[in-house]
Amino acid sequence: ETGVTQTPRHLVMGMTNKKSLKCEQHLGHNAMYWYKQSAKKPLELMFVYSLEERVENNSVPSRFSPECPNSSHLFLHLHTLQPEDSALYLCASAPLGGNDYGYTFGSGTRLTVV
Amino acid sequence: GENVEQHPSTLSVQEGDSAVIKCTYSDSASNYFPWYKQELGKRPQLIIDIRSNVGEKKDQRIAVTLNKTAKHFSLHITETQPEDSAVYFCAHQFYFGTGTSLTVIP
Question: Measured between alpha carbons, how far is A104 from A35 in angstroms, rounded to an integer?
Fold first, then answer.
């Protein structure tokens, strides 16, 4: 493990379901990120959290709702998703917020919306 | 947000040859320029980075160069090996390039 753990690894959900993705980092980092990876847009920024405060929301639809209860945990709550939301959702962490440090990525959650 | 463009989208080289991937950016606010490698079915991993106070950085067979005036930075891989085959991403200010799929032909 690299220090960033994502669960579940795979998720299949219907369009009316509600589910949550979880990310946990054991690196002592203070910034956490959600990215969406699909064939259409390889690494698309969704949300940025620095010291548990959301600092970036890249025009993501409200059916995606992030939560960062502390600097080690990040959640992505999902509801009434669309088939085009099927993708790999990657969590990443970095020592500090801003743009000056490289990311450590988790293995991702492969989401399929049916 | 920032606009990061990456070229080429695919690249095939013979084993032992060099590979060069280039990215351009629009916003100069950040001085940090990383490169990531993503092997098939795996997570992206940071392989090298550079800050704008230097123009070049090397780590064994890989190097990154930065031209702040022209707003572009490049990844150079020398003496390529089959295990270098992967997708490579540049990044700047939270935003990633569209990736370059590198294939090294034995």
Answer: 12
Averaged over A54-81, what is the pLDDT? 91
- Interchain contact, A100 vs B96, CB within 8 Å: no
Mean pLDDT of all residues belonging to chain A = 92
Distance CA B45, CA A60 (A): 25
**Is B92 within 8 Å of A48 when comparing Cβ atoms?**
no
| Strands annotated E in A27-86 | 31-37, 44-50, 53-57, 64-70, 73-79
- Which pLDDT score, from 0 to 100, does residue A48 have? 92
Min distance A62 CA to chain B CA atoms (Å): 19
Q: Rounded distance, CA B51 to CA A110, Å?
A: 33
Q: How confident is the model at residue B53 (pLDDT cuts 50, 70, 90)?
A: confident
Task: Give per-residue burial for A24-50: e unless 16+ CB within 10 Å, then b.
Answer: bbeeebbbbbbbbbeeeebbbbbbbbb
- pLDDT of B17-52, one tens digit each? 999 999 999 988 889 999 999 999 999 999 999 998
B89 and A42: CB-CB below 8 Å? yes
- Considering only CA atoms, which of B73, B98, B84 is closest in space to residue B18? B84
Q: Measure Cα distances from A6 to A3, A72, B31 in Å.
A: 10, 12, 30
Give B32's contacts in chain A (Cβ within 8 Å): 99-101
R_g over Cα of chain B: 13
